[in-house]
Design brief:
The structure holds two protein chains of two kinds. Chain A is of the alpha/beta class. Chain A has one domain: UDP N-Acetylglucosamine Acyltransferase, domain 1 (3 Solenoid), CATH 2.160.10. Helix content of chain A is about 20%, strand content about 35%. Chain A contains two helices and 13 strands, in the order ααβββββββββββββ. Chain A is globular, with a radius of gyration of 14 Å. By secondary structure, chain B is an alpha/beta fold. Chain B folds into two domains: about 60 residues, no CATH class; about 190 residues, 3-Layer(aba) Sandwich (Rossmann fold). Chain B has a seven-stranded parallel β-sheet with strand order 3-2-4-1-5-6-7, with helices on both faces. In chain B, β2, α7 and β3 form a beta-alpha-beta unit. Chain B is globular. The N terminus of chain B is likely disordered. Classes of the chains: A alpha/beta, B alpha/beta. Chains A and B meet through β1 of A and β3 and α8 of B. β1 of chain A pairs antiparallel with β3 of chain B, so a sheet runs across the interface.
Chain lengths: ~140, ~280
Amino acid sequence: MKELIEKVKSSIKDIESVDKSTLRVLFHDTLKELKNHHKIDAYIGDFPTFIEPVHLGNNVRIGDDVLLGPNVYIGNNCELGDYVELSNTIVLDNVKLGNNFTLENCIIANDSKLNFDILKEKNCILKGITDIKENIEKLDF
Amino acid sequence: MKSFKLFHNNKESIEVHYLKFNIGKNKNNDINTKLLKIWQKKKMSDKEEREIGRIQELESTNLAREEIRDLVIETKKKVERDNDLLAERINKNFQKHNIKSFDIVGAIGAGKTAILEKISEKISSKYKTLVICGDITTRVDADRIEEHNVETVQINTGRECALNAYHINQIIKNKELSEYDVIFVENVGNLICPSEFILGTDKRITVVSITEGEWVIEKHPMLFKMSDIAIINKIDLLERLGTNIDKMISDAKKFNPDIEVITTSAKTGENINKLLEIMGLAE
C-alpha cells in the first residue's frame, strides 16, 4: 500500500506534466489494494460514518457529520472539516480540507491546505495552499 | 451528553444538564434567550456551542424554535422524499440484475446476526451473497458473518441510528451487481429509527426475540406495518421464560395482516429452513 501511495505522490508532484492514463491506472490499483488491507476496526474521530474500505492514517482529525467511503485513503496528519463526504478518493499526507467538501474519484496532493468551505468535485487532482476556492490547482483526469 | 460529562464533578452539572435540554423547548422566546445567555456564560467550547445549535435547529421538530419549525419540518419531509426516490432506484437496479434483497431490522441482541450466520451457512454455496452490516462502530458482526463464506461490507454510522438509501447506494454503485444473487442489509440495532428510511430492498424482515417480552411488537407498530416478514427468535428459551408468543403473533398480524410471522431459534437452527422457504431461498 505504502509503495502505491508513494507512486501516487510522485506522479502528481508536477501537476502540469501528469501522465493521465498512467495515473488513472495507478489510482484504480491503489483503491483496489485498499480492499485487501483495510477494514474498519476502530471508532475514530467525531462521529463520522464509514463505509469500508477506508484507510485512516495517524493523527487524523475529522469533523462532524462526515461520510467517508467506500474506497477512501486518508494519509497521516490530515484534518477534515464538518460535513465532508469522500468516496473513491485518495487524500495524501498533511492535507487540510474545509467544511462541506464533496469529492468523488479525486486525489488531494500532499501538504494541500484548502481553507475554505463548500467544494464539489469529481474525477480530478486538487492541490494548493489557499483560502480561496478559485486558487486551487486542478487537473481533471 | 459530552458537555454533561465535562461538568461531571461540578456543582453546576445538574443546572447545565437542565439548561442544555430545555433551550428551544420553551415556546417563550424571552425565556429561551435568558437560558441561552446563562448557558453562554458557562464559557462553552466551540464543540459544545455547536452541539446546542444542533439540538436547537435540527435534531427534532419538538425541540425546534418556533421561527424555524416550518423549515425543520419541510427539510425532514424533503429528506424522506429523497430517500424514497433513491430507494426506488436501488430496487430497480436490484431487479435488473435479478438480485433478491432483504433488509433485516431488529433491536440490539434480538439475533439478527445469528440468523444471518445461519442463513449464510446454508445458502453460501448456492448463491453469491453480499451482506452489508450497519453498526454504530466495530465490524464484529461482519467478521462473524464473513466466517460463513459470504462477502461483507461494514458501515459504521457513528451516531446515526439507522441506515438509509444513500448508504446502500454508495456501496452498490462501486460493486459489479451482476456478480451477486442475494444481498442482505443488516440494519443498525434499533426498532424505531429504521422505520423512517426504506432501503430499496425487496423485503424487510423484522427480528424480535422472546427475551424482549411479549409487548415488544405492540410497542413498535410502525416497523411491523412496513415489514414483510416478522421473526420471533430465541424460541429455545420459551419454556424457561414463558413469553406469550401467541400475543406477539396476533399483534404483528393486527398491525399488518399481510405479514408472515415465523418463530425461530438461531441457536438450534429451528425453523431456519422454513424461513428460507418464505424468503424464496430454499435449498
